UniProtKB/TrEMBL annotation, chain A:
Listed GO MF terms: electron transfer activity; heme binding; iron ion binding
Gene Ontology CC terms: plasma membrane
Keyword annotations of the record: Cell membrane, Electron transport, Heme, Iron, Membrane, Metal-binding, Transmembrane, Transmembrane helix, Transport
Membrane topology: Multi-pass membrane protein
Protein name: Cytochrome b/b6 domain-containing protein
Family: Belongs to the HupC/HyaC/HydC family.
Record localization: Cell membrane
Gene3D superfamilies named among the record's database cross-references: Transmembrane di-heme cytochromes, Chain C
Residue ranges of domain Cytochrome b561 bacterial/Ni-hydrogenase in the record: 15-237
BP term (GO), one: respiratory electron transport chain
Chief location: membrane
Sequence intervals crossing the membrane: 21-42, 91-113, 161-183, 203-225
From TrEMBL, chain B:
PANTHER family registered for this protein in UniProt: BLL0505 PROTEIN, PROTEIN-METHIONINE-SULFOXIDE REDUCTASE
Pfam family, one: Oxidored_molyb
Domain Oxidoreductase molybdopterin-binding: 89-223
Name used for this protein in its record: Molybdopterin-dependent oxidoreductase
Source superkingdom: Bacteria
Length: 243, 249
């Protein structure tokens, strides 16, 4: 009998706070829509540049045509599924607002409640090579939880969740703002921070791909850790401690 | 077994999500909700940031070596061709609508006004950017000459070119109309404005995306509302494809 189908241990604990669960699903939907609509927006000019400017006569560091003969991202990955820049922008700029304000609210609530401090704080001993290697070995054995403290996140969880919440999502938001000509006038420091509008566009794309990579690994680990128990814990908060 | 079922579920779920998004994007209630974000984004920018902030200006050394054109590169139509053949000597810019003194200005009149030169970045909605130098009078000097009536809220730029069989037009509100960097450019990169870039006169509205920068401007009309003009959404791309009227984002 494999781990996925093993009967759950009777011990259940409260795993995720209500605000975490609400934020998780709002963000899950937003990020998926933003990735799909973002790829459609990229179709309109499938080249990326470094610096302030960049257009057809300039030298790109990335071309969509290297990946796809049509120079367009296939329709099963984009929102909408057929070429439509205007509608993709409507989706993108709607869910950009949802993502940004949900993250802001979640950050405020979680700082006040102490969720970040108690659950995501990375301690020095967790970064020691011996600890990292031991945890990597445990992952290879599909053991993701410390039996002594099953509610605690392991170091790789902490690093990836903190990376998404404090680095990737804010970077996506601010590089997105740095592409707005109105915001460029109002907050010119955005251009200086990212090294110009086309650099901001490039970083925006790289961060989006990192987030896509996170989603793939995250879903794979949810499946390996027992999808019913994991998904339920993010809906009801209740989580059965694996044996 | 369960793993395969769940993977199938996941793939079907993802496919269903994209199909659902397509259905929402085609339905009127879905579009109504999505399109509301434009007003939120515009209001947030206008309320939270300085509405008189200037777009960044660049040095000669920072200019794009070549500045591509987009949209119409050569307007059709006999009238425009005749004007072009005459080097635009017979071209006149009309300023009318809700103004006290309608104007009819030649290129010489426009060149004789106080000028502004600015090197700015042009950001196309498609994603590319190019930096170029623009030369022309500030729009507000023309508006002062014409004397806007109190009821005027928007300026509509009627153009000589057509796209998708419709006349090109664009519009801006008074915040952008009186912004110091909003100019009517008749020269670009130290040369007379090329036809591909909107000769003889184009709008530069530097805090908005490229499609707002109307080329081949023939007439500026001051209006109280945009409803009655062409498709009613304030611009050709807004009417035809659903692009945002507020192109600041």
């Amino acid at each position: 009998m494999d781990k996925v189908n093993a009967p759950p241990s009777p011990r259940a604990i409260h795993r995720h706070a209500l605000t975490t669960r609400i934020w998780h699903w709002i963000t899950a939907v937003s990020v998926i829509v933003l990735l799909g609509s973002g790829l459609m927006i990229l179709n309109a000019h499938g080249q990326l540049y470094w610096g302030e400017y960049g257009a057809n006569f300039d030298r790109p560091w990335f071309k969509l045509i290297w990946l796809f003969d049509s120079a367009r991202v296939p329709g099963w990955l984009t929102i909408p599924s057929t070429y439509n820049l205007a509608l993709a922008r409507r989706w993108h700029l709607f869910f950009a607002l949802v993502l940004a304000f949900a993250l802001l609210a979640y950050m405020i609530v979680s700082l006040i409640s102490g969720h970040f401090q108690s659950d995501l704080r990375i301690r020095a001993r967790e970064l020691k090579a011996a600890h990292l290697i031991a945890d990597a070995k445990a992952h290879a054995r599909l053991e993701f939880h410390d039996p002594a403290n099953p509610r605690a996140y392991n170091i790789f969880q902490k690093m990836s969740y903190a990376g998404v919440i404090f680095v990737a999502l804010p970077l996506a938001i601010f590089t997105g703002l740095a592409m707005s000509p109105g915001m460029n006038a109002a907050w010119p420091w955005l251009l200086d921070v990212f090294g110009g509008r086309q650099s901001a566009r490039s970083i925006h794309f790289i961060v989006a791909m990192l987030l896509a990579g996170f989603i793939i690994v995250h879903l794979a680990l949810v499946i390996l850790a027992g999808p019913v128990n994991e998904v339920r814990s993010m809906i009801t908060g209740k989580w059965r401690v694996p044996r | 077994m369960t793993l395969i079922t769940r993977r199938t579920l996941l793939v079907t779920g993802a496919g269903g999500l994209l199909a659902g998004c397509d259905a929402i994007g085609k339905s009127q209630p879905g579009r109504d909700i999505l399109f509301k974000a434009e007003a939120v984004n515009r209001s947030l920018q206008r309320v939270l940031t300085d509405r008189n902030a200037l777009a960044r200006e660049y040095s000669d050394a920072e200019m794009s070596p070549r500045f591509r054109s987009n949209g119409t590169s050569r307007p059709g139509g006999e009238a425009y061709r005749a004007l072009m053949a005459g080097n635009f000597a017979d071209w006149r810019l009309r300023v009318d609508g809700l103004v006290q003194r309608p104007l009819s200005l030649s290129l010489a009149d426009i060149r004789a006004m106080p000028q502004r030169v600015q090197i700015t970045r042009h950001d196309c909605v498609e994603g590319w950017s190019a930096i170029g130098k623009w030369h022309g009078p500030q729009l507000w000097t023309l508006l002062d000459l014409a004397g806007l009536r109190d009821a005027a809220r928007y300026l509509v730029f009627h153009c000589a070119d057509t796209l998708l069989g419709r006349p090109y037009y664009e519009s801006i509100d008074l915040i952008d109309a009186f912004h110091p960097q909003t100019i009517l450019a008749w020269a670009m990169n130290n040369r007379t404005l090329p036809v591909a870039h909107g000769a003889p006169l184009r709008l530069r509205v530097e805090r908005q995306l490229g499609y707002k920068h109307a080329k081949y401007v023939m007439r500026i009309e001051a209006v109280a509302a945009l409803d009655g003009i062409h498709g009613g959404k304030g611009g050709l791309w807004e009417d035809v494809s659903g692009y945002e009227w507020y192109g600041g984002i």
